[in-house]
Amino acid sequence: MYRPHPFSWVPAEGQRHATTDPKPRQGYDGVEVRTLCLKRVTVDNSDIGWLWPTCSSCNTGAHELAGVPAGGETEE
Q1: What's the pTM?
Q2: CA 11 to CA 64: how far, in whole Å?
Q3: pLDDT in tens, 36-68
Q4: Fewer Cβ within 10 Å of end Cβ, the chain: N or C?
Q5: 54, part of any domain
Q6: Which domain holds residue 56?
Q7: Domain count for the chain
Q8: Is 73 exposed, middle or buried (0-12, 13-18, 19+ CB in 10 A)?
Q9: Closest to 18 (Cα-Cα) out of 30, 2, 5
């Protein structure tokens, strides 16, 4: 399965989290994953879940793994 970064975004517990757990063939819905903020959460792949705010710790970790500056920062 194509995965451009070593993490995936998943909605769980009222936020969008990032995980490096392998993506199951059927998707993450209902699956427990370990997040970049070190929580164990059960994925809620509902439509509303994708509108939840992003976990700031996972966002920081995802930017680090992707090698992209966070929050509009630029490299000089």
Answers
A1: 0.85
A2: 20
A3: 999 999 999 999 999 999 999 999 999 999 998
A4: C
A5: yes
A6: 8-66
A7: 1
A8: exposed
A9: 5
